[in-house]
Amino acid sequence: MPKDEVRVSPDDRGYYFGDGVYEVFRIYGGKLYEKAAHMRRLEHSAREVRLPLPCPLAEIDDILERLTAESRLAEGTLYMQITRGEAVRSHPFPAGAASVLMAYCSEVVRPKLTMETGISAVTHEDIRWLRCDLKTLNLLPNVLAKQTAQDHGVQEVVLHRSGTVTECSASNVMIISDGVLRTHPANHLILHGITRAVVLELARGLGIQVREEAFGLDELREAEEVFITGTTVEVTPIVRIDGQPIGSGEPGIVTRRLQTAFEATFR
Amino acid sequence: MPKDEVRVSPDDRGYYFGDGVYEVFRIYGGKLYEKAAHMRRLEHSAREVRLPLPCPLAEIDDILERLTAESRLAEGTLYMQITRGEAVRSHPFPAGAASVLMAYCSEVVRPKLTMETGISAVTHEDIRWLRCDLKTLNLLPNVLAKQTAQDHGVQEVVLHRSGTVTECSASNVMIISDGVLRTHPANHLILHGITRAVVLELARGLGIQVREEAFGLDELREAEEVFITGTTVEVTPIVRIDGQPIGSGEPGIVTRRLQTAFEATFR
Description:
Two copies of one chain form a homodimer. The longest helix of chain A has 15 residues, at 57-71. Helices cover 31% and strands 28% of the residues of chain A. Chain A is of the alpha+beta class and 267 residues long. The two termini of chain A are 31 Å apart. In chain A, a hairpin with a 3-residue loop joins strand 11 (225-230) and strand 12. In chain A, strands 5, 6, 7, 8, 9, 10, 11, 12 and 13 form a nine-stranded mixed β-sheet that branches. Chain A has two domains: 3-106, Aminotransferase class 4, branched-chain amino acid transferase, N-terminal domain (D-amino Acid Aminotransferase, Chain A, domain 1, 2-Layer Sandwich); 112-264, D-amino Acid Aminotransferase, Chain A, domain 2. Chain A is globular. Chain A contains eight helices and 13 strands.
């Protein structure tokens, strides 16, 4: 149906509590990229917050495929969220509520310019809850972090817990330090990015040493290269952090290799 | 308008991000209880997440007063939330979006039975973000905590950070230990409850020594009395925690005095 005609109930638990989970899929060449991985993560998020899916995963898969086909988009995103449904406001899980699924496609072009030139970032304390592995609708801290970037005239925020780098406001962050690729382990403190997983596998395939190991702000600032990974940003270099250049201040050679390898996965 | 006719946009940032703040007011004798304190907290929450109020506070006040009067409720609650409004989904604050205020009244009777007999609780790790002083729509951890209580067949969860008690899933918690009333200080780790503030003032007035000082799980379990405070629960004794009785397993004498004093503030 036309998005203008979609109307959510004020009693939807997504609206009261952010009580829901979501996924953003990338569409490349008219197809959902890494669909299976997104579906697994959706299942994980839903299971951990004990949110019943509105129908079996295979049916959700069908809905998303139909939506993608009907959108006729070659390049875009598919946004999907599932909330715990409509019920009189009360914290515990409601009896008999039906989960509400909403999904739509949007045209989104690849961020070629920023992938080429790199972006700037600032660092900021990570004050989120301790289940950042769950892709839920409780995104206010991410909103505030992203706004902090905007306030500083930069594109991203690198978050850290008391000096230990976790991820960015809506992407994962990786560094090249002494030729080794390092990124925070996929535990409860970061989102387990689909692009993150693809890039780590590509790096290993290219013979780059990979360590899923936390690093500090000092190592971030002194890294040879820094880049972010994410569904829409793909592999985007960070060339400046808190006003200081990373390495030469230009996108690095390993980042470039990973960008090329990543592009080859959907070309 | 009738609640059934209210329809929220799927692009409301409350629905995507939980990007909003809220208050729950108590109605006693047809009047909004401690209205000024709630309005101050609303202003604080909105300012800290940089959410523009849809109109001056005095106008919101008028709306709430009219709503309360038209509800003709003697005893109830007024729920109000304000979101950052409708915009294409993107994390940073949207340009030109209009904040959306929703408010309604419900009949809610005083929980006389549980105030009389007390409730049971379980303890659980507090995994929320580090701005629990803000009353925002990011309530999924509170939902999960409250559900944990329900799963254990009890009414509340006492949250703790690595053993330091903070508050409950939707109320503040206080103990009487060696005759002294103790409760977590009103910093970024707990909601600054309106009832909490009223009760602390009443306690001081009754000559009870008050210490706003964090305490641990051991002190909680060995306390003479434990009770929670909140807009709808007022002053409710906790008589069992994790299956073990608190003190004699009956509501304590200080708790009783505070209940009586609290009731006198609106009778």
